[in-house]
């Protein structure tokens, strides 16, 4: 009797599993609507904040050099600080994201980053300023990478590529915000004496940049957890409740109308929370063994090339533009103008001047807004172009632009080629989209965080190398970055082919 009862229960469970839907199909049924989109926008704000903070250094540091007594060498170090912090903390943040959840990790890290950035605005000297910036940098790794994974897990499979690409374009928009905020704030002339320091426009600008982290964190407190994270932790009821809510908001129907009643998963489910080092080993070791090793190596190399240029070389753009556009550059290349300026100012140690030319703000603002518009248009057609083609084309084109900087003698062409660097951000989305496809849920957060960590090493490398080379061997600087970027573009041909067939199969799976 008991044996028959157990057989019956087993048959019921097996039948229930057979009729259960995959999470990808369940997301497809829930659809894409305002519910998904609004939280994708919130997650995009984390990415914007994470790009505004380090890129903002290119305006904050020149404007604060007199108040903080910052030398050029210290400026190069401070420009690297955000990326050093990201490199040091990508591993533990990847662990927390995969074991404690995407939502809570994002909220806590962003609140901490925002608070430390706000505190840095009130620091009286270089050391205290650098300490606050370093503490904020320790928190940036999470909002700089995790939103890509989160967004990829929050939308139906067939919309994933275009959603990540559009989100990536919005991050590029963050680069446009930097000069616009700077143009609005830095020309203001006010001084408030607090004794130990004077509160000047650059301090207000620092607060504006840091506030984006806090705003994003507060908005996400009302948002959902990743359904893929929930199901990977065995929290199937919570996953179904989230899918019903998503269906209700997107379709304007009752949650009870959601047709899917149970879920199945082929992902690794682990409810217990292992020890820190045990979990790190479980999550990271498989990434450095077949079949994931080759993809980790490829993703990391491409990220290194992208970030060394977009974050390393890019941080010096306002300074280089300022020198070239205010110099006597008629009929000569940008590097020749820089050499002339170095010779003419070698013995000029006059009164400290921390002003930036208005033309620098104007050109950077126009160029970054234009790059953002181009990025949004291109990313909106990623389904037609294909993420692999987009990845390859962007790297090859921007790499060619870097090389052509050494050739052109017209200021307008120089400004266009140099200011086009933010478009390279379009390549980040496709690489992360591949990560979402290639790596399983329980390894995905760590895979993205680690590959992005290697990318941030490229940022540290690029910022310091560009700073050292621009004055010493200017032409070699642009040949180096352009050539390395084109090499990464060629490596991108090794990325997997289209997933359209798999996507179609997933969508048409029956209950």
Automatic annotation (TrEMBL):
Its predominant location is membrane
Q: Ranges for the Major facilitator superfamily (MFS) profile domain?
A: 37-500
**PANTHER family associated with the record:** MAJOR FACILITATOR SUPERFAMILY (MFS) PROFILE DOMAIN-CONTAINING PROTEIN (PTHR23511:SF35), SYNAPTIC VESICLE GLYCOPROTEIN 2 (PTHR23511)
**Natural source organism:** Papilio xuthus (Asian swallowtail butterfly)
Organism's domain of life? Eukaryota
Q: Which residues form a coiled coil?
A: none
Q: Note the topology in the membrane.
A: Multi-pass membrane protein
Transmembrane region(s): 39-60, 80-97, 104-122, 128-150, 162-186, 206-223, 296-317, 359-378, 390-408, 414-435, 447-470, 476-495
Q: Where in the cell is it found?
A: Membrane
Q: What is this protein called?
A: Synaptic vesicle glycoprotein 2A
**InterPro entries found in the cross-reference section:** MFS, MFS_dom, MFS_trans_sf
* Entry-linked Pfam families: MFS_1
* Record's GO cellular component terms: membrane
């Amino acid at each position: 009797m008991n044996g028959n009862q157990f057989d019956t229960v087993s048959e019921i469970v097996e039948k229930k599993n057979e009729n259960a839907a995959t999470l990808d199909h369940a997301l497809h049924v829930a659809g894409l609507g305002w519910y998904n989109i609004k939280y994708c926008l919130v997650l995009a704000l984390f990415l914007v904040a994470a790009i505004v903070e380090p890129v903002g250094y290119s305006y904050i540091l020149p404007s604060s050099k007199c108040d903080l007594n910052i030398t050029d060498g210290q400026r190069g170090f401070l420009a690297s600080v955000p990326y050093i912090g990201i490199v040091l903390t990508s591993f533990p943040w990847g662990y927390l994201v995969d074991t404690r959840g995407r939502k809570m990790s994002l909220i806590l890290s962003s609140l901490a980053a925002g608070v430390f950035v706000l505190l840095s605005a009130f620091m009286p000297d270089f050391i205290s300023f650098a300490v606050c910036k370093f503490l904020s940098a320790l928190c940036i790794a999470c909002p700089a990478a995790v939103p890509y994974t989160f967004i990829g897990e929050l939308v139906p499979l067939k919309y994933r590529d275009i959603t990540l690409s559009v989100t990536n374009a919005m991050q590029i928009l963050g680069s446009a915000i930097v000069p616009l905020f700077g143009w609005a704030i830095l020309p203001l002339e006010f001084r408030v004496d607090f004794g130990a320091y004077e509160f000047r426009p650059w301090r207000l600008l620092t607060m504006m940049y840091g506030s984006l982290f806090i705003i994003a964190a507060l908005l996400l407190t009302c948002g959902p957890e990743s359904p893929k994270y929930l199901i990977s932790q065995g929290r199937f009821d919570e996953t179904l409740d989230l899918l019903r809510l998503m269906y209700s908001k997107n379709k304007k129907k009752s949650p009870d109308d959601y047709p899917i009643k149970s879920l199945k998963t082929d992902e690794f489910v682990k409810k217990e929370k292992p020890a820190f080092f045990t979990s790190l080993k479980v999550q990271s070791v498989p990434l450095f063994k077949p079949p994931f090793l080759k993809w980790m190596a490829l993703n990391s190399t491409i990220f290194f090339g992208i970030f060394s240029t977009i974050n390393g070389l890019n941080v010096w753009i306002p300074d280089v533009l300022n020198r070239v556009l205010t110099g006597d550059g008629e009929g000569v290349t940008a590097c020749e103008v820089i050499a002339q300026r170095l010779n003419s100012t070698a013995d000029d140690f006059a009164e400290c001047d921390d002003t930036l030319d208005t033309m620098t703000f104007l050109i950077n603002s126009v160029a970054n807004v234009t790059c953002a518009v181009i990025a949004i248009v291109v990313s909106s057609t990623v389904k037609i172009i294909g993420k692999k083609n987009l990845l390859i084309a962007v790297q090859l084109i921007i790499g060619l632009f870097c090389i052509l900087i050494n050739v052109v003698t017209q200021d307008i062409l120089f400004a266009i080629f140099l200011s086009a660097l933010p478009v390279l951000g379009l390549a980040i989305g496709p690489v992360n989209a591949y990560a979402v496809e290639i790596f399983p849920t329980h390894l995905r957060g760590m895979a993205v965080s680690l590959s992005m960590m290697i990318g941030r090493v490229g940022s540290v490398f690029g910022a310091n190398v560009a700073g050292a080379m621009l004055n010493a061997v200017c032409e070699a600087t642009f040949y180096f970055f352009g050539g390395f970027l084109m090499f990464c573009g060629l490596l991108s041909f090794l990325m997997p082919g289209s997933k359209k067939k798999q996507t179609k199969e997933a969508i048409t799976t029956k209950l």
